[in-house]
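Q: What structure does this chain adopt?
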Amino acid sequence: MAEIRVEHLRKAFADFVAVQDSNFVVRDGEFFVMLGPSGCGKTTTLRMIAGLELPTGGKILLGGEDVTMRRARERDIAFVFQLFALYPHMNVRKNIGFPLLAQGTPGIEIRRRVEETAKLLRIDHLLNKSVSGLAGGDRQRVALGRAIVRPKCFLMDEPLGTLDTEFRDLMVHELRELHNRIHATTVYVTHDQMEAMSMADKIAVMNHGVIEQFGTPREIYD
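A:
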């Protein structure tokens, strides 16, 4: 189970309050989008869920466990800053399996999970290829594979922000399609309303550190 529960979450940097008394629940398997302008507190909230920032107050529960003060490596969460970041000196198989190798997973288990992930993403025929020679869409899928090979929960911070419009639209579709297949709990941060409306099960609209609206895309739009 990978439900995320945030209770009265607060983050202050000296006199500046970045996040004020945030409360929300991301249900197990839900695609949850935090939408708002730059500096509204959405990335700070994401970093606190990941364990990269400690809150000033409040609680974060993952699967019912209080993880508020746990380090990032102690939470079974993948934080995706930019989907396109790959290790150019490794082939596809090694790129996808790297998080498992770093975790000390046995080699047989790494092979099994890498092959399962590659098959899910329809790149199993590329496992022994160098990533440097892959087309853009395949490189993006390899980066996704590296993110999803281990955890049951994904945090994504503007992962498509550097892509051109055509490729971004393609990846919005691919991410949502992938979510429909694996049903992993996902928290996705964006300032783009179309991304939010196209992908989300639920949306939290943030401004000045406060969640001003919360609901389904239809509820937010109406």
